[in-house]
Amino acid sequence: MLGKVRITTEHDSGSTSVSNAFIDVYMTEANDAQLKIYLYLLRVMQEGSCTTVADIADRFNHTERDVKRALQFWEKKGLVRLEYDSRKRLTQICLEDISDTVPEAAETPSETPVTAAEESEYTVPPKRQYTPLEQRRFAADESLSMILFAAEKYFNRVLSNTEMQTILYLYEDLGFSADLLDVLLQYTAENARGRYASYMEKTALAWHAEGVRTPDDVRTKRSTRYGKEVYDVMRALGLQTAPTSFEADYVKRWMKEYGFTAEVILIACRKAVAGTQSHRFEYTDGILRNWKAKGIRTAADVERETLEHENARKNARQHLRKEESKTAGMDTRNRFNRFQAQEYDFQAIKEKLVSNK
Q: I want to staple 125 with a disulfide (CB 3.0 to 4.6 A). Which of 108, 173, 314, 341 is the partner?
C-alpha cells in the first residue's frame, strides 16, 4: 500500500489580493466594466508592471471612453487617483489605500433598510441639459459620434435636440456603453411610435434598474422576467430583443381580456409579420380585436374565416372577369355601341304626321 505523497508544483501560483472592504462596500455599486478594470489594476499593481488605457480597452473589448469613465468612477469613490500632464493626458493611476476610503457608516451596517426609491435616487443621476460647449466636446468623442450617426440611420431622420440630449445623458451620466446604446437605438426604432426620446429614456432606465450593462445582459439577465408565452410572441414577431413591460401587457391583454389561446395569438403574429415591417404589436392587436368582434375564438374559426375571405375574393375576381368578357367584343371607340340600335318606319311616321294636320 502506498503511503502519502507530497504534491508540489514548479509553477508560481500567482494571486491578486482584494480587500474585503472592496467586496463588502464598493463592489455592489459597480457595473461589470468597472469591476473588471479595477481588479485588473490591482493585478498590474501587485505584479509591478505597467499598462495603458488602450491596453485595458483591448483586453476587455471596451472603448477607451469606457475605460476612462470607469477610472473616473473609481476616482469619485476615492479608490484611485488620476494624474495628468499639462496637455491633460493621463500619466499615472495611483491606487489609494482602501481602508482610508471606507465610509464610516459602512463599518457598522445600518439596521434601517434602504428603500427602492432611495436606492434608485442614489444610483441614477438626474437628467440635465448639455450646453453647446459640452456638445462640441462630445463631438470629438469618436464612439459618441458613431452612436449619433447610427441613431439618425435607425430613426431615418436628423435627431431632434431632445433626442440628442437623451442620448448624451444615457452615454455620459447613466454610463451606457456604445454597444449597449446601439442595441437600445435599434430596439427604440422598431418599437416606439415616433416619440423616440421618451421611449428610449424609459427603456434605458428600466434596463439600468435591472442591472443591464451589456448587450448580452439584454438577452440573458431579463430572460426570466416574463412567462414563456411572451417570449414566444417576441420570436413569432421576429423581435430578438427582450420584451418591455408594455409589450408583455399586450400579451396579457390578448389572453386575459380578449380570451385568446396562445395558438390563436401566434397565428395573428404570423399574419402581422406578413403584413407589416414595423409596429407589429399594434398590428397584431388590431387583428385580434377584429377577430374578437367577429366571434372568432379558435384556430378552426380562423381557418374558416380565412377560407371564406379567400372565396369571397375569388368570386369577386370571377365576376369582374365575366363583366370584362361581355364588353370585350364591342368597339370601344364609340361609347354608344353598347346600346342596341332601334329600327324606325319613317314612312309611317310621315303619314301619321300628315293625317294629324
A: 173
Overall domain count for the chain: 3
Separation of first and last alpha carbons in the chain: 153
Q: What's 75's domain CATH number?
A: 1.10.10.10
Amino acid identity of residue 70, one-letter, is A
Give the pLDDT confidence of 158-170 residue by residue, as tens digits. Answer: 988 889 899 999 9
Cβ contacts of residue 305 below 8 Å, gap of 6+?
291, 294, 296
pTM beyond 0.70: the answer is: no
- The alpha carbon dihedral of 167, 169, 171, 172 has a sign of positive
Look up residue 192 and give its three cell numbers: 416606439
Please list the residues that pair with 261 across neighbouring strands: none
Q: Is residue 198 part of a domain?
A: yes
Q: Which residues contact 29 (CB under 8 A, 6 or more apart)?
A: 77, 123
Distance CA 11, CA 32 (A): 30
| Cα distance between residue 259 and residue 257, in whole Å | 6
Amino acid present at 165:
Q
Helical (H) or strand (E) element with 324: helix 299-326
